[in-house]
Design brief:
Low-confidence stretches: 215-226
Number of domains: 1
CATH class: Alpha Beta
Structural class: alpha/beta
Number of helices: 7
Number of strands: 10
Distance between the termini: 39 Å
Radius of gyration: 17 Å
Oligomer: single chain
CATH architecture: 3-Layer(aba) Sandwich
Shape: globular
Helix content: 10-25%
CATH superfamily: Vaccinia Virus protein VP39
CATH topology: Rossmann fold
Largest sheet: 7 strands, mixed
């Protein structure tokens, strides 16, 4: 795979319950390549540009949790702010119906490459962004936008800005089915109480606030190091129990 303008690496990720996954990620946080300003138009600065392409501890934790969930064939799962989409790839490997979404212009390219590396079908990918930022433009842009409602919405390390609790809860509300479950892995960035309030305002009841294990039962390297992970899994539900 040719990726001009930045450097990448391959990592083998072990998640209990599925075969190891080979993941192509950015080499480090110093990578940046936005020659046409596509990321800038979506509100992505040069400092935050590389973040989508790194394996983060919370993303690995989310993948671990999804690997433990029984697969319901009729359940529609959406990962928001997916980045490299490790949890989505775990779901895909287990036969779940997964859609991955993000706002970074290179996310789909990396998802396709990692599906290919693991001999998986390509993930269903959609553009999805909350808060400030413009919609994609150009041929096929409207077809790529996230739409529809999902039974399970998952995400990791998304509450990193002060305005995120409100805008993220609104985004989730737009894409959650009437009877939906929401999983958020949060590394204790301090915005959890505000997010709880905004989720409650949209009818989502807190079902579980679980401290995640330390260390996590996974092999990993580089930015995915989890030997001191202190985050939590937040589970919300609206309407009633999911049908299986």
């Amino acid at each position: 795979m040719t990726m001009p303008g930045y450097k990448t690496k391959l990592e083998s990720i072990a998640i209990a319950g599925v075969d190891d996954l080979v993941i192509r990620s950015l080499l480090d946080r110093q990578q940046f390549h936005d020659p046409c300003g596509a990321a800038q138009r979506r509100g992505i600065s040069s400092a935050t540009w590389p973040l989508f392409g790194l394996l983060w501890p919370s993303g690995v934790q989310l993948a671990i949790q999804l690997a433990l969930r029984p697969v319901c064939r009729n359940e529609r799962i959406l990962e928001i702010g997916c980045g490299l989409g490790l949890a989505s790839l775990v779901g895909q490997r287990r036969g779940a119906r997964v859609t991955a979404s993000d706002c970074h212009p290179l996310t789909e390219k990396f998802l396709d490459e990692n599906a290919r590396l693991n001999e998986l079908p390509l993930l269903d990918y959609r553009y999805g962004q909350w808060g400030a930022g413009s919609m994609p433009s150009g041929p096929g842009a409207s077809e790529s936008a996230l739409r529809g409602r999902y039974d399970l919405i998952i995400g990791s390390d998304l509450l990193y800005e002060r305005d995120a609790p409100r805008s993220l809860a609104e985004f989730i509300d737009r894409h959650a089915a009437d009877k939906a479950e929401i999983w958020m892995v949060d590394p204790n960035r301090g915005h959890r109480p505000a997010f709880n309030r905004h989720m409650a305002a949209h009818g989502f009841r807190m079902q579980r606030d679980q401290r995640l294990p330390d260390p996590a039962p996974a092999s990993h390297g580089g930015d995915a190091k989890l030997d001191a992970y202190k985050g939590r899994l937040l589970v919300y539900r609206r309407g009633g129990p999911l049908s299986g």
